[in-house]
What we know:
Blueprint: E1 4-9, H1 14-28, E2 32-37, H2 54-72, E3 76-79, H3 92-105, E4 110-113, H4 123-137, E5 146-151, H5 153-159, E6 164-167, H6 173-182, H7 187-194, E7 208-215, E8 218-219
Parallel strand pairs: 1-2, 1-4, 2-3, 4-5
Antiparallel strand pairs: 5-7, 6-7, 7-8
Helix pairs in contact: 1-2, 1-6, 2-6, 3-4
Zinc ion binds at residues 10-11, 14, 122, 125.
Pfam families: PIG-L
Protein name: GlcNAc-PI de-N-acetylase
Organism: Paenibacillus motobuensis
Amino acid sequence: xxxxxGFVYAHxxxxxxxxxxxxRQIADEGGNPVLLTATPGNAGxxxxxxxxxxxxxxxxRRIELQQAADILGISxxxxxxxxxxxxxxxxQNVLAAHVADFLRKHQIEIVITFPEDGMSGHADHIAIHHAxxxxxxxxxxxxxxxxxxxCLPSKHDANGIASVLSVGANGNWQMKRDALAAxxxxxxxxxxxxxxxxxxxxESFGAEYFQLVWERGVHHPHKQEQSIFDDLT
Length: 233
Ligand SMILES: [Zn+2]
């Protein structure tokens, strides 16, 4: 199962929030999860770390992301170092070219990214969503066979969307907790979603959901999958 799976996100921590179980599962099955993060995430809060310059926060978040990546089993993290909070100001073709370079260089076969609403509505997330769509839908990178959106369970239930795969903790919830804890500067947003990491138990971690939106030129194929690796050539 030596498959290359590319996670395309905007900020350090996006991967841990939405995809920890999936990434760890891919790594455990012998696959190769690779992450592209577009910005250093240095325009935001610092949690309980107190005041920091943007340079200090960028350095801190890079270390945090590497710690989380080690826990999740990500083999390589690629940093674009674009402006945090400013991705929608980046020329769409430029952003798409960065994504295409990443997918081509790592011979990515399966791509995971944000859904239409960016999951949280964050403008950087939505800019990444569009850049990935542009590259994948145009078939710009021949190695890419499938695109999934990392979606929220509420959306999946409300829309009755077909072709949604859920990946549960499978006894691995402490792994996700530890990866979240690695993103120390982001502890406030982590606590808002998951609760106090010192206190949480397995019930704080629901499944992660992935909607298959494109497979070798077909948009929204209707099928039931057991794994993102189903039906690869
Ligand atoms: Zn983000």
